[in-house]
Specification:
481 residues; alpha/beta; seven-stranded mixed sheet
């Protein structure tokens, strides 16, 4: 579609575009808590001024913001995963008639830029929370055209300009009102990068594991880490390298580390249902090669994160990681309760034994490592597992050198979730005497979260048995959860 930029058209006419204009984001209905943090990160990457003129409601797919220009909107959508599209907002109201009235009063010198006889157009009606008939949509389109006085031809396949009218009927289609709560009309600017989730889908990945990160979430993490071309990115719990792929897509140089010998070397049993053992070419490098990103690959190390092997100096622009929670993959570090001496002739090829690595120690080590090895203003983005009934913001680990930027939840079940934490390094480690702080009582052992999952299941089973016994005795018991 050969849509013209408002700013470019105004410049051609010798006019100066307005400083801030209203734009409407249309979001996908997933990962709703991550929408605003992703937008704020992208605004920061491009140095764009964005004003949120309303508080975003997670149940709504719409968000109105003010941006300096159409070019700024295009830059944001060039990386945005959660936004479907963005329009230049011409009118909004609580009814169609209110929008029609505002369109009648819309400045002619602006609407005429896109409604001339030489410009084809297309107008579409989309509804949220209710389905309208084709006849009703056509009636709405005709009413809109009357108020805008478009003179150009209609072109449904490849128009010069596309316009959308969005109607919001709420989140419950079963109780949708006759008339919409909100109506928005504007000129389509561009779509977001939803296609990346399919292009990089784990289902199409050459090398995968039991806990390979979903592609969409990997790109959201890369955006929140503000990864740009030539960034140096590290994942200390790299697994099969999903996070490295998203970082490399945005032009970063990537490396990782993991304690799992079989994962790092791409050997052992396969995670695929129709395959017993991994192939010789199943490894992280092969995944990057699959997407033409091998040039961004530095290396991956077999290393125990609890044992520091690095010379202390700020070197990474971003650390993005998904530490093990002890549910599907165990949390391990090198060590043994038994004292063992390895003879020198047996050192080559020796794989040391490992023992449990408490969640409290994992996240304490992660924040301390980030404070030492991130560059100033570098980002730490990681997942923190939570027991949802007990969670509050005091559970988030803290470090005097790291400033919390965002904290968004992804529910995994009614009791277990994980939170995507983004922190920025704002002070050098040598300026901070304190180390990371964490509520050890919540993550006191290597399978603390896992035990809560199964304890909850046991409690449910116990209550079920009690209910059956009481029912057999002719009693009724009410349990408050």
């Amino acid at each position: 579609m050969a849509a013209r930029s408002t700013a470019n058209v105004l410049k051609m006419m010798g006019k100066t575009p307005s400083i801030m204009k209203d734009y409407l984001f249309l979001f996908a209905q997933e990962h709703v808590e991550f929408r605003v943090p992703e937008l704020q990160s992208l605004v920061g990457i491009h140095g764009i001024k964005m004003e949120m003129i309303e508080t975003h409601i997670n149940t709504s797919p719409f968000l109105v913001v003010q941006l300096p220009s159409e070019e700024c909107a295009v830059k944001i959508m060039g990386r945005c995963i959660l936004a479907k599209s963005i329009i230049e907002l011409w009118a909004r109201g609580n009814s169609r008639q209110e929008v029609y009235d505002k369109l009648s009063d819309f400045p002619k010198d602006q609407s005429s830029l896109f409604s001339g006889e030489d410009q084809s157009f297309c107008l579409r009606v989309h509804t949220f929370g209710k389905t309208l008939t084709g006849e009703k949509k056509l009636s709405i389109i005709q009413d809109v055209v009357k108020h805008l006085n478009f003179k150009g031809p209609v072109n449904l396949s490849n128009p010069d300009n596309m316009f959308f009218l969005y109607e919001d009927y709420g989140i419950n289609p079963n109780t949708a009102p006759e008339e919409p709560y909100n109506v928005y009309f504007g000129r389509w600017i561009c779509d977001g990068q939803r296609k990346l989730a399919d292009t990089y889908s784990v289902k199409k990945r050459h090398f995968i594991g039991n806990t390979s990160m979903d592609a969409a979430l990997s790109f959201i993490m890369a955006n929140q880490a503000k990864i740009t071309p030539n960034s140096f990115v590290f994942d200390p719990f790299v697994g099969t390298g999903s996070l490295l792929i998203s970082a490399a897509h945005f032009g970063a140089y990537v490396m990782g580390a993991d304690i799992n010998y079989e994962t790092i070397h791409g050997c052992g049993k396969s995670s695929r249902t129709n395959q017993i053992y991994r192939g010789k070419d199943e490894n992280i490098r092969a995944n990057l090669r699959q997407y033409g990103l091998e040039h961004s690959y530095i290396d991956v190390l077999m290393a125990d994160f609890s044992c520091n092997v690095w010379r202390e100096q700020p070197m990474f622009d971003a650390i993005i990681t998904d530490p093990p929670y002890g549910i599907r993959e165990s949390t391990r570090k090198i060590g043994s309760k038994k004292e063992a001496k390895i003879e020198e002739e047996h050192l080559d090829g020796h794989i040391p034994s490992s023992r449990s690595y408490s969640l409290a120690d994992i996240f304490t080590d992660l924040l301390n490592f980030s404070a030492r090895y991130l560059r100033l203003n570098g980002s730490l983005v990681y997942w923190l597992p939570t027991h949802r009934p007990e969670y509050n913001d005091d559970h988030i680990p803290r470090h005097p050198c790291l400033t919390l930027v965002s904290n968004s939840e992804q529910p995994l079940s009614s009791t277990i979730g994980r939170r995507l934490i983004t922190m920025i390094k704002t002070r050098h480690s040598y300026e901070c005497e304190d180390t990371a702080e964490m509520r050890e009582d919540l993550y006191q052992n290597h399978n603390g979260i896992r035990s809560k999952v199964f304890i909850t299941a046991e409690e449910k089973q116990k209550r079920k048995l009690e209910k059956m016994e009481n029912h057999g005795k002719g009693k009724s018991t009410v349990h408050v959860s």
